[in-house]
Amino acid sequence: MSSDKKPGWKSLPIGGVVLEPGSSRKYKTGDWRAFRPLVDKEKCVNCLLCWIYCPDSSIVRKEKCVEVNYDYCKGCGICAHECPKDAIKMVEEEK
Amino acid sequence: MTILGMTGDEAIAYAVKQSKVDIVAAYPITPQTIMVERFSKYVADGEVHTGYVCVESEHSAMSACVGASLTGARVFTATASQGLALMHEILYIASGMRCPIVMGVANRALSAPLNIHGDHSDMMGSRDSGWVQIYAENAQEAYDWTIMAFKIAEDKDVQLPVAVNLDGFIISHCMEGVDVLEDHAVEKFLQTRKPLFTTDPEKPITLGAMCLTDYYFEFKKQQVEAMQNVLGVLDRVCKKYKSTVGRNYGILETFGMEDAQAAIICLGSTAGTASEVARKLRAQGKKVGVVKLWLYRPFPTEEVSAALKHVKALAVFDKAISFGAPYGALCSDVVSTLHTLKESPKTFNVIYGLGGRDIQSSEIELVFNEALETAKTGVVKEKTMFLGVRE
Questions:
Q1: Same domain, B15 and B81
Q2: Are B218 and A8 within 8 A, CB to CB?
Q3: Residue from A9, A11, A25, A32 whose CB has the most chain B CBs within 10 Å, to mutate
Q4: Are residue B264 and residue B376 in the same domain, yes or no?
Q5: Where are any strands of DSSP class E within B220-312?
Q6: Same domain membership, residue B237 and residue B346
Q7: How far is residue A79's CA from residue A58's CA, in Å, rounded to a whole number?
Q8: Domain extent listing, chain A
Q9: Which of A1, A12, A17 is the best residue to mutate to test the B interface, defined by the most B CB atoms within 10 Å of its own CB?
Q10: Which helix (H) or strand (E) element contains residue B361?
Q11: How many domains does chain B divide into?
């Protein structure tokens, strides 16, 4: 993001105070990712172990199979490691 | 008028009591101990309604002060020497998070070797921490500046922590008659702190968030601006204090500077001795003067220039060493301020009083005579003089 779009010192609240609650949602950490988890819908049994272990709450529960919220998933690979069915593969991001 | 016999430490504790402080978190250390010891007695005796947080170190003391200040409370702490050094990390957090904490610092030498006596090594080592620094000459000034410090720190254009410095033992433990205000006069002068932000569960905010390459710089620039705002705010606060109390304060105080050829600039208690020596020398027809800086951070460049531009020679007194630096801290600031003048005074640095080594009026007289000689010849004989050290 170019810095000219960001507010300057004159308009920022002092001391690094963030006045808007929950604004960390706007900070999409997905672009930190080097590896992307891919869920194999055929193998997933919806046990939700990945949902429990995900440190960024980036596993989204669906009726039959989990999905990944790539806006926030940092690609740590814990979900793939914990999956008892090998249903999640970590694939290198292509830039 | 009420005059109470108090030491510098006691005078600060009394000022803090009258300033209706919400939280005090502190850890004892010589020669500051009496400030918080006396204040804890006020708490124990029910004379104040202050929350007193007993902590296990100065690092924790300053951390607790930061937390309390961020809730919107008026906060005080005190320390010296090793205690200030241990706080060092949190000093930057207090100023960076814009906490208007007031801290009494009974200036003391730093180890090693271990020493409990007064010099300015402690606060000078923290001079870039973003704290406003005020130096008191005596117990009366320590009392008055403590009250004014809250007003300056909490001003909406400042929102910075303020350290009120007093020379360890010389001021901290010396009993003086201190002219104190009535409680209600202090209350009227200060009023309750009006914080810019408060921690309210109904209106959540985030404090202390991480801030990287894209924002950090902007917050530092805000601190620079706030520091500069101190000059105007301090002037306003001093004028208001004068109208309430009658005593005259400001950025600096001068003696004999209207026609001085040679001058001394210094901080704290030394200014009193220097002025007395100057009075004696002036009676002999020697044109000497003294500039005492009340405000050291932000450094008042314009005021220092105005006060010193007519002198031919200048001795800058530093009660601390900046090892390997061109000069002591105060002298570096003065020289870098005066170099823009068309004809800047011939300046030399006097390092003195380390580890509480007493400074005699005869030694100050020697420096004045050296400065007068420099004024006459235009030649600085010795760039840095170590006054009173044995060879």
A1: yes
A2: yes
A3: A9
A4: yes
A5: 252-255, 262-267, 288-293, 295-297
A6: no
A7: 10
A8: 28-95
A9: A17
A10: helix B361-377
A11: 2
Global pTM exceeds 0.90: yes
Residues B79 and B177 in one domain: yes
**Residue B129 is assigned to a structural domain of this protein:** yes
The whole domain housing B212 covers: 2-245
Domain A28-95 CATH class label? alpha beta
Indicate whether B58 and B92 sit together in one domain: yes
| Identity of the residue in B209, B214, B226 whose CB atom sits nearest the CB atom of A16 | B209
Chain B closest CA to A41's CA: distance in Å? 38
Q: For each of chain B's 391 residues, which pLDDT tens digit applies?
A: 899 999 999 999 999 999 999 999 999 999 999 999 999 999 999 999 999 999 999 999 999 999 999 999 999 999 999 999 999 999 999 999 999 999 999 999 999 999 999 999 999 999 999 999 999 999 999 999 999 999 999 999 999 999 999 999 999 999 999 999 999 999 999 999 999 998 999 999 999 999 999 999 999 999 999 999 999 999 999 999 999 999 999 999 999 999 999 999 999 999 999 999 999 999 999 999 999 999 999 999 999 999 999 999 999 999 999 999 999 999 999 999 999 999 999 999 999 999 999 999 999 999 999 999 999 999 999 999 999 999 9
Same domain membership, residue B39 and residue B157: yes
Q: Is residue B391 in a domain?
A: no
Distance CA B258, CA B210 (A): 51
Q: Pick from B196, B209, B222: which is nearest to A18 by CB?
A: B209
Boundary-marking domain end, from B198, B226, B245: B245
Q: Report residue B237 CA to chain centroid gap.
A: 16
**Does one domain contain both B222 and B284?**
no
Q: Is A1 on the interface with B (CB under 8 A)?
A: yes
User: Got the DSSP string for B316-349?
Assistant: EEESS--TTSSS-HHHHHHHHHHTTSSSPPEEEE
**Domain finish residue from B187, B215, B245:** B245
Interface-testing mutation among B155, B212, B222, with chain A (most A C-beta atoms within 10 A) = B222
- Predicted-assembly ipTM surpassing the 0.85 threshold: yes
Q: Hunting for tokens 């010849």 — which residue is that?
A: B377
Q: Which residues contact B332 (CB under 8 A, 6 or more apart)?
A: B322, B325, B326
Distance CA B111, CA B330 (A): 21
